[in-house]
Amino acid sequence: MTHRRTVAAGAACWILAAVGYVVAEFATALAVPGYSYTEQYISALGVPAWSPRHYLINGALYAQGALFVLGAVLVVRAVRARWLGALFVLLTVAAAVGDALVAFVYGGSPLWNDGYEWLHALGAILAIFGGNLAVLAGTTVAGRAVGGWSYRVVGTLIGLAGLVIFWMLQNYDYFTVRYAPIGTVERGCVYTVMLWQLVTGVWLLARRR
């Protein structure tokens, strides 16, 4: 596979990961009467006892993680990034493990009921914190294929925004509760990862022409 084709394949993985997740979440939410994007956690959609289409959002989490890693491996290989490329891939793996834990240890799952609900919380931290750190590392890596400074600025701002909002989420009960509902804050730091995947994927494909 040539350099350009490898970059394009990685870009396609990220676009599919982002679009697929958002569509799956929306389709899952449609089946839950009264579900609020602003007031409720994303993971509530993955609880079988409450969400008829729980399999969609949980499946999307697995796919999101796998495609994030695959895209990273392909782009790192194409641009021949070394230590930073390895760091980027490791961070996407951490995020993917987090996605898998969130999907596997859902509310009411056997592990959850046996007292391992902390694995769900750990998964959320890995997926969000690790995912946004991956965005920062990935911006530098993908920037080698994109060229110019504008992409690097946009990618870095997305990653930093995700980390700041994640910090707000972690301190929600202390002060963030006064400014925004929990669902909005959580989605703010989750969607930055998908936004970066989409923006980077489109940018890479556009630069390929």
UniProtKB/TrEMBL annotation:
The keyword Membrane applies. Keywords: Membrane, Transmembrane, Transmembrane helix. The keyword Transmembrane helix applies. It comes from the Bacteria. The chain crosses the membrane at residues 55-76, 83-106, 118-137, 149-169, 189-206. Pfam families: DUF998. This is DUF998 domain-containing protein.
